[in-house]
UniProtKB/TrEMBL annotation:
PANTHER family referenced in this protein's UniProt entry, alphabetically: ACETYLTRANSFERASE YJL218W-RELATED, GALACTOSIDE O-ACETYLTRANSFERASE
Keyword Acyltransferase: yes
Similarity-based family: Belongs to the transferase hexapeptide repeat family.
SUPFAM superfamilies (alphabetical): Trimeric LpxA-like enzymes
Protein name according to UniProt: Acetyltransferase
EC number(s) on file: 2.3.1.-
Source lineage: Bacteria, Bacillati, Bacillota, Bacilli, Lactobacillales
InterPro entries in the record: Hexapep (IPR001451), LacA-like (IPR039369), Mac_dom (IPR024688), Trimer_LpxA-like_sf (IPR011004)
Keywords: Acyltransferase, Repeat, Transferase
GO molecular function list: galactoside O-acetyltransferase activity
Residues of the Maltose/galactoside acetyltransferase domain: 6-58
Amino acid sequence: MMTTEREKMTAGEPYQQYDEELQARRTEVRKQLSAINALDDNKEQNRRLAKLLGDSGKNLWIETGVEFDYGYNIHVGDDFYANYRLTLLDTCPITIGDHCYFGPDVGLYTPVHPIDPDQRLADVEMGKPITIGNNCWLGGHVTILPGVTLGNNVVVGAGSVVTKSFGDNVVIVGSPARVIKTVK
């Protein structure tokens, strides 16, 4: 049984986003990210970023401008590179496989806000996890929506909005993204 708002949030259950523990973590993460993003030394930036994440493999490299809510729900594999202005809204787990590369202005968003106006007025929030397989490449300005899973060897064209899951070995583009090519 889930007892804390953090446990409910991470499990994708309805939770109260204004919970004191969650607010305190978001505030602390914003402070640390502000300091990290201001550093000139990218190696030091990435060393500090790795400490905020749930876990990360070897060779984490994220350029300046990374933003996320909590950090503890972000799991990154080996040999990860992200260009400028990466946004990871991690109310639910975001899992990124090995050998993945993200272009500038990529956003992965796990929060789900209710369509029902009464639930929105009650500040009910939920989330759905995002999983990115191994050896994936996301072009610039790609948006990944809640609940999406991408298989291994997926390429997502620049500017795409990914609204549903795709299996291995495909190139997807568009808004909403669709398969334009199978690879391998």
